[in-house]
Amino acid sequence: MSETSTQGASTKKDDNVWIPLESNPEVFGVYANNLGLAESAHFEDVYGLDPELLAIVEQPVKALLLIFPITSSMEEQRVVQDAELEKKAQPHLDPSLIFIKQKAGTV
C-alpha cells in the first residue's frame, strides 16, 4: 500500500485496486491494449441479446462484458448461490475467465 495525500488529508491507497472502468468501447480498447491485449482486438457496443441485435456484432466474439446496476435482491441471490457452490463442487471454469465487480458512485 502507498499513502496519498489530497489537500492535507491522508488516505491509504491499495495498489491492487482496479481503476473504475466506463462502458465506452474506445476507452476499453485503450485500457486493454495498455494491459497487453493485441492491437487487433477491439470492443463494440451490444445493444441487446436478441438474435437480430447480436447479428450486427463483428465475429468472432471472444468475450462479453456486461455492465449493469446490481440491485439488493440480486446481491442477496448471489450470496445464496455462493453458499450452495461452497457445499458442492465448483463446476469446471475456464481459467482465463475473470469477474470484476465495479462499484462506482453517481457521476
Short note summarizing the structure:
This protein has three helices and two strands, in the order ββααα. The chain has helices at about 25-35, 50-55, 70-85; strands at about 1-5, 10-15. The two termini are about 25 Å apart.
Q: Characterize the largest beta sheet: strand count, sense, and whether it forms a barrel.
A: 2 strands, antiparallel
Mean pLDDT: 76
Report low-confidence residues grouped into runs of 5 or more.
1-11
Helix and strand run: EEHHH
The backbone outline, from C-alpha atoms, is: extended
Proportion of beta-strand residues: 5-15%
Question: What distance lies between the first and last C-alpha atoms, to the nearest angstrom?
Answer: 26 Å
Supply Rg: 18 Å
- What class do helices, strands and sheet pairing give? alpha+beta
Number of helices: 3
Number of strands: 2
- Helix percent band: 25-40%
| Widest sheet, order of strands | 1-2
Architecture overview:
The protein is 28% helix and 9% strand. It is built from 3 helices and 2 strands; from the N terminus they run ββααα. A two-stranded antiparallel ribbon has the order 1-2. Strand 1 (2-6) and strand 2 form a beta hairpin. The longest helix is centred in the C-terminal third of the chain and has 16 residues, at 72-87. The chain is extended. Residues 1-11 have low confidence and may be disordered.
